[in-house]
Amino acid sequence: MKQNYRRCVSCKKLAPKEEFWRVVRIKQSDTIRLDEGEGRSAYICPQVECLKIADKKNKLGRSLKAYVPTEIYQSLWQRLENSSSKATESHY
Question: Could you please report the per-residue DSSP string of 19-81?
Answer without folding.
Answer: GSEEEEEETTT--EEES-SSEEEEEE-SSHHHHHHHHHHTHHHHHHTS---HHHHHHHHHHHH
